[in-house]
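Database export, one record per block. Field names are fixed; values are copied verbatim from the stored entry.
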Amino acid sequence: MIEDKSQYEVIIVGSGLAGLVAANILADYNLKILLVDENIHLGGQLLRKIPEELGEYSELHLDKVKRVGFEFVNQVKQKKLTLLNKTILMGIYNDREILLEWNRQKAFSLKYDLLLLATGARERYIPFRGWTLPGVYSTGLVQVLMKSSGVLPARRMLIGGTGLFLLAAGYEYLKNGGRLLGIMEQSPWLNKIKFMPQIFHQFPKFWEGARYLSLIYRSRVPVKYKRKIVEARGEKQVEEVVVARVDGRGRVIKGTERTYSVEALAVGYGFVPNIEAAQLAGCELEYAREKGGWTVKVNDRLETSVPDILAAGEITGIGGGQKSICEGQLAAYTILEKLGKVKEVPFAPRLKKLQRERKHHLSFMKCFNSLYQVEPATLLDLPEETIICRCESVTLKDLKEALKMGCHNPNALKVATRCAMGKCQGRTCTPIIYELLQAMCQREGGEIGLFTVRPPLKPISLQALNKSSS
């Protein structure tokens, strides 16, 4: 077991693609490295463990990025570094110290020379009437159920929202034998035309989407554009879903509603970066909707505004697996140069190449993300009884009333309504509240401000605190 106050040359928080790639490179330079992740398995959200009983499924149906990712997982396990799974990052402090909780059993602090934050992203949620009913899943959870356990969420399911992930979830669901009633994409089809020039720089991503669509169309599953999930209905669980057409601004066209009889509904609206650790460390953040909202601001070497802290992967902008792999490499070489393990001149061409590659990924990211935007103003069309914060049962009406009382920033809303104070610590509702404030106050996202974050970043066990104090 790791001793309290142990010193590491490099600590990497997050074992997704960016963290894995960086760890794999750094481990070849005789450094004392710690790779930390809160999940059971390495690989982050993209690389979920696939059970052996699914046979050849894992070999035949993985895209290129995931195959490369699993190769990195196998390589890292054989390298000389310390892996710490089931570990929550509780806090980051000014004297190059972090506080961790391991396996809900023990809390301890560690020292580092350099810290790489590769904390990834989480799913974005957009509320609608009935979204808290049992049987309403996120598209990510549907994939986790099928990939990790081989379990179908239901025999008959509808998928809705916006983004390529809808197609990915539909593809996996069909491969596992489910009956997919349809995919309801909120954005218009014609919106995709401006994306075509980017295909030449990201052909694997295009091929991935084409593979998904091929199976979906061969299975005669309708894919409808400019369609919005309006309501989920049911007594004890979802039984019906109401879908409506939307106009160019994403507003429902009255009279176009259609009801589907379902056993489950999967919804997805893209991803938002997990910036909380960087925010707690004091790293400068920036806001851009085409990057996923609030992201960590870095230079072309992935250095943050805080000395000795770097950031890589989705927290610098939602850009997919290839961007994360590129930034993992770039972060590793920056770390090696900062620690004096390599000379800058011989590595300069490699760094320049990676920086050029990253620019292509950033360009693709901005274009791709702009295709699947949900206008904040459409949230104001929700019924006032719609729950916004699930943990504390805060409704849209509660937030509007708090706004009338002068609560014009996230922290004021939190004090007035208890939103974002539940067990998830706002991971679900925070992006929704930011966009609601934009719409209600008619201000840009960067002008709204952020919720204050404090340690611990996530709920931890009293048992772990008790053991650490004793």
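Remark 1: Residues 17 and 341 are 23 Å apart (CA to CA).
Remark 2: The chain has a mean pLDDT of 89.
End of record.
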